[in-house]
Design a protein that fits this description.
By secondary structure, this protein is an alpha+beta fold. Helix content is about 30%, strand content about 30%. It contains two helices and three strands. A three-stranded antiparallel β-sheet has the order 2-1-3, covered by helices on one side.
């Protein structure tokens, strides 16, 4: 059965650079990504990402900019 955006369950995943994405529940995470903890409909996952991913810069860039400011 094909997945549909309205009925399937998705989960929020995050990588080491603290970048977020959605991934279908029941599938293995892509390499380099881990579960963030939120599971639900795709629209809910995207809304959650919008509320927690407030700085789109990769973690390595944020760290480098923080050190350069010192």
């Amino acid at each position: 059965m094909a997945q549909t955006e309205t009925t399937d369950t998705w989960r929020v995943v995050v990588n080491d650079e603290e970048q977020y994405s959605v991934w279908p529940e029941g599938r293995d995470n892509p390499p380099g990504w881990r579960d963030e903890g939120y599971v639900g409909p795709r629209a809910g996952c995207l809304e959650h990402i919008g509320s927690v991913w407030t700085d789109m810069r990769p973690l390595s860039l944020r760290r480098a900019m923080g050190e350069a400011a010192r």
